[in-house]
Amino acid sequence: xxxxxxxxxxxxxxxxxxxxxxxxxxxxxxxxxxxxxxxxxxxxxxxxxxxxxxxxxxxxxxxxxxxxxxxxxxxxxxxxxxxxxxxxxxxxxxxxxxxxxxxxxxxxxxxxxxxxxxxxxxxxxxxxxxxxxxxxxxxxxxxxxxxxxxxxxxxxxxxxxxxxxxxxxxxxxxxxxxxxxxxxxxxxxxxxxxxxxxxxxxxxxxxxxxxxxxxxxxxxxxxxxxxxxxxxxxxxxxxxxxxxxxxxxxxxxxxxxxxxxxxxxxxxxxxxxxxxxxxxxxxxxxxxxxxxxxxxxxxxxxxxxxxxxxxxxxxxxxxxxxxxxxxxxxxxxxxxxxxxxxxxxxxxxxxxxxxxxxxxxxxxxxxxxxxxxxxxxxxxxxxxxxxxxxxxxxxxxxxxxxxxxxxxxxxxxxxxxxxxxxx
Amino acid sequence: xxxxxxxxxxxxxxxxxxxxxxxxxxxxxxxxxxxxxxxxxxxxxxxxxxxxxxxxxxxxxxxxxxxxxxxxxxxxxxxxxxxxxxxxxxxxxxxxxxxxxxxxxxxxxxxxxxxxxxxxxxxxxxxxxxxxxxxxxxxxxxxxxxxxxxxxxxxxxxxxxxxxxxxxxxxxxxxxxxxxxxxxxxxxxxxxxxxxxxxxxxxxxxxxxxxxxxxxxxxxxxxxxxxxxxxxxxxxxxxxxxxxxxxxxxxxxxxxxxxxxxxxxxxxxxxxxxxxxxxxxxxxxxxxxxxxxxxxxxxxxxxxxxxxxxxxxxxxxxxxxxxxxxxxxxxxxxxxxxxxxxxxxxxxxxxxxxxxxxxxxxxxxxxxxxxxxxxxxxxxxxxxxxxxxxxxxxxxxxxxxxxxxxxxxxxxxxxxxxxxxxx
Lengths: 423, 423
Prior knowledge:
The structure is a homodimer. Chain A contains 15 helices and 16 strands. By secondary structure, chain A is α+β, with helices and mostly antiparallel strands.
């Protein structure tokens, strides 16, 4: 069975059924030549869980960058496509509570900080806290998932509209909706978890207490990882997917101002949309295992197109050029009939591990060679001429400063490496 | 149009029709929810050509690693799957003859040398030489492609069987087949190209002469690139795909003995199969351009599963362990209740750019932490204990030599970086 070894992109439809809740309508279905109903993968999480089950893997930490498919309306300006990449990181295995969960959040923090996408915030909640909250607010058991989907819309809809959907479309009582409304406006840190553990209503739910105790533990690890500046415990975060069982989180970029201090409901930055999300899914592997053997998992998924679209906008705004090559040096010539010498020098540089490029023309103009370096951000040019060849030197030009210096051929590789290291 | 921006993996069937010759039967067809006939991409070359045409790109050099699909019989032991990765490198643009072609061969040479897969040979031929040869041997024009497909089987079938397929299945005359037989046994280098340019029959074909003149030029560039030790001009190389228009090549691993000297028909190494192939396809982009505007292209495709399967066999044979992580240091502890200290140190190392790992257990056993390092090839362990914390030091252990030394906490990052650089 080929599928045991790698999750095929096309998969039997039933593999995906019942994993995505109300989002299931976006699954991209196909039929193969035999008429079997197939689907394109919707995310990388379900394939990962299936892979663990099929190969009986009980612990692993891995990342995976690949395409996923959603039968949604594309919106290209916002970086939303029907076919797009996800970049997932997951930790699977039976471990002590919240340690891998904290590592996932540390990784999101590190990635978003290093990409310099602007200020961001990571909202954290827990499915058990949500379920406990629904229970103590009087939501009937069979309405938990659908009410959860409605709460998930709070980042796009006002509370009034969310409340109205709960009451009018989903048949929830007004009292229950209003009680939910009080909780989902709460944001904070470890102290909010502590306060809710004392809350008269919330503390009646065992599930909520388990989630809140873990939330406290999570924040203590996040303090050690020095990432609490961006992480907010937010009771309005729901996330639609059915498979989450514990911690859930979502990273959003905020256009202005820092995230509020933990525990304080500050001036909120304007959200420019979610760039990463994830959570704990302890039941998914068991759904694929013939014996129902469970493997607890926690993971995060980053939307790369989204990130790229922001980086490109930033580059455009600053009139900065985005480098599309890693070429370090262009081997050029000012005179005719030096193609062979150019090729020879290029091969010398390649063999020395230098990223070199040469124009595929017999007699390119020096100006067009230099222009190409300017356009594509190549920092150095090694220029050959009859005189240089006689003297055993190469003219090394700095594209930015336009300074040129003769370098002994035997010392060229060293000199280029030095110049690159200096940059 | 979303497809303009990225080649979707699923594509209208007609995009692929007429590009792959007799291999078209392996195209993986699908129907979408609307009933439209789609196919999964067969290779990365056709999608690349379509991308250039749709975006009006007239020159580009790029690599692409991604999955392709063939409705073939899988053979896992030989690294052959229905879904597999290809790693493609292509140069598109109007340039002087054979310069980008030579670069592609240099890249194949470099990759196969650096991977240390064992000895290899790169066979080179030219579609124009093949077509010219077919013409002067008396193959009717409308049989060129199908006879070419049969010649392509020479790496798997004996000449007798190939001859028999030409004559009995494809209706070629015995005389034409025998004349082809004489040519396809020829192997050599630049000198063979020169000899064939003087060949009474071959020199009658303008096409063959154009191909042979370019072959001479190619070899002169390959000499400058210092790769002629592995490249052989081989008239039996055909490659089945319809889209090639000029140079074609294929890299094979040879189990024993070096490739024959150019111009000399030496003792042949046993082929263990093709690991890379490619060629020039100057007409493909024009097939997708509404105005038929052509963009000449040359490229190479490497079969990664094949390469991995060989590397894994090699590793197994030498009982070497293939490292599956890049972790440089494990943060461990010999005593209980030091989880927080371990997490804190791990974050310190992460923040300093060191690849560190920590066990997700409150109180893991020292032995299991060390065993994990042995198993996964992590070279260093930073061990914390009550005494070390008091003294402001960390015990740094070399997993291989088992030597341990106390390192001042403030100097730990420097010391780890030094140790890693030494390895």
